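As noted in the main text, all predictions were made from sequence alone. Below is one such record, for Endoribonuclease YbeY.
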Amino acid sequence: MIDFNYETEFVLDNEEAIANWISKAITSENKTEGEINYIFCDDDYLHKINLEHLSHDTLTDIISFDYTMGNEISGDMFISVERVKDNAIDFNVSFEEELKRVMVHGILHYCGYKDKTEADALLMRTKEDEKIAMFHVEQ
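Prediction:
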């Protein structure tokens, strides 16, 4: 089950399409869908979580809490809409494209992909592109 929660003014206008796409991304990695919660918030909200739970005094676009057990993907993903907007400008992509990248990035972490080394980051980016392309096929 994929659920969307809002702690800011932002609201997805295509929740069903996004949920279907995330489900397909999970299935394409030979995983099953558990409970996945996306919580959209602002920088202040996410900064507090970063300080309280990770002791990081920085802004970030996403913090995810992974509750995956075996092949069943589950977790809570907190996404700063402000960071995504700024990153979209920095990376010269649309807000929608950057949001999809961040959303699927969390899912890929739950699937076991890492991004700490250069090789892992390259594989993660390839997987993100692959999953984003799946959304465009749906439209």
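The beta strands are 2-6, 32-41, 62-66, 72-80. The helical segments are 15-28, 43-54, 81-90, 95-110, 118-138. These features were considered when defining construct boundaries for the mutagenesis experiments described in Section 2.9.
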